[in-house]
Amino acid sequence: MCLECGEGGRNNSELTQTEARTRRAELFHSVCSRTVYGLGAMRICPKARPLLLLPLLKPAALHRCPSHVRASPCAQAHRLLPYRGVATEGPASHPSGQRDSVEVLGQLFRRDSYTNVTAKILSKVGRNLHSQAHHPLWLLKERIKAHFYGAFVGRRGNPLFSVYDNLSPVVTVEQNFDSLLIPADHASRKKGDNYYLNRGHMLRAHTSAHQSDLILCGLDAFLVVGDVYRRDEIDASHYPVFHQMEGVRLFSNHELFGRVEHGEDLCLFESGGRRTPQKQETHTLEAVKLVEFDLKQTLTRLMKHLFGEDLETRWVECYFPFTHPSYEMEVRFQGNWLEVLGCGVMEQELVNSAGAQNKMGWAFGLGLERLAMVLYGIPDIRLFWSEDERFLEQFRLPHIDDAVTFKPLSKYPPLTNDISFWLPAANYTENDFYDLVRSIGGDLVERVSLIDQFTHPKTEKVSHCYRITYRHMERTLTQEEVRIVHQAIEKAAEQDLGVQGRY
Questions:
Q1: Any idea where the FDX-ACB domain is (predicted)?
Q2: How confident is the model over 205-237, as pLDDT tens digits?
Q3: Which listed residue, 200, 405, 483, 486, has the most CB atoms within 10 A of its CB?
Q4: ∠ CA 227-30-50 to the nearest 5 degrees?
Q5: Cα angle: 140, vertex 316, 384; to 5 degrees
């Protein structure tokens, strides 16, 4: 049932009118009030599915802490991190201590063998750079929103796409992986690549983690924006926290074929079909081609809105577990081809499991930092976390579509220090070391490079040598203060990773 007009809907015969009104009101005020422009600004669901008590709204699913809740005396006894609502018990430099639980956004999560989130990462939760007015990520988000609001309008004149930009980054493993059909043995689930609170909960690795819940909520066209968390290498273009925007559009048979000649004779689905590189086994080829055309046209218009009408684009076939066929979009910018997003026709099994069996659709995802660095000429991803007014002031524009090119701050000289060690016999990954360096060195660390490795011919022990580049974004570092940080990294690597130092 559409929350605004009451049209559409399915399987509501068992609800009384009073129950239906109550459920609409609860869902409207619980979810729709979180859209960026408030309750009355957009059409929330053109033809929604039945209103249920959804995982999206359950505290156990997303662990949202209402804004009016304040820390309990017990919570205040924890060592608070720099941002309100994020705390961890005891010394917080590494997850190897004897703490029993982790607190994130007002929820406690009991530690287990999967817990690998660090205090440094937890300190980023709740920053929500994409919601800070005049931040470059906010600026880009607003430009994309404005494009979708203007380009897609429903029958009543309201924007077709709703926007969700403050869903909790704490999700279940089922939401992050299972709901997207990512196999249990898929490499993307590794502890080495993700931040786990425990075996069942994690910091989302992509905004796609909310896809199934929002479809189950009855939404057919929506954008999700949020911070995502991945353990990764350290350089100017990688950071363990970054921001994504996810888009989904679903079509019924009538919506897809309504404007096609003899469209009443066409169908979304077929029985007895087979999967090919062009389509899924349940989709008709006609439906896939129309959905694919709509997807590519939508994203081409978006990129031309951002880069300019003369932009040259191309599509590259690829693979994602949750779409088929799947594509990456590349744009030609300053003489080079740049990948800007991934997209595809949604796997029908995913759509069916979310209660939209009579629809098919497309989805896309893009990284806000990646686009902002290209569009605004920002050279280092750490700058997005800067509170230096010389950086932020450059993005205070009269209008969100005004042109802006980042003017570099004074480039302070780097300092480099090497660290060499023998690896333990097992259970060592490079991302463990990168995460340890991040936890201790923070944003002083500009880059970590593996510059040498060898295997001892007799003992077969493996040695790694890393070069750590330190550079402060706002002042000159001294070798003395860098050496203190570097020695702390050396000590922690031996204690926490089991390496044997060669320094």
A1: 410-502
A2: 999 999 999 999 999 999 999 999 999 999 999
A3: 486
A4: 105
A5: 25
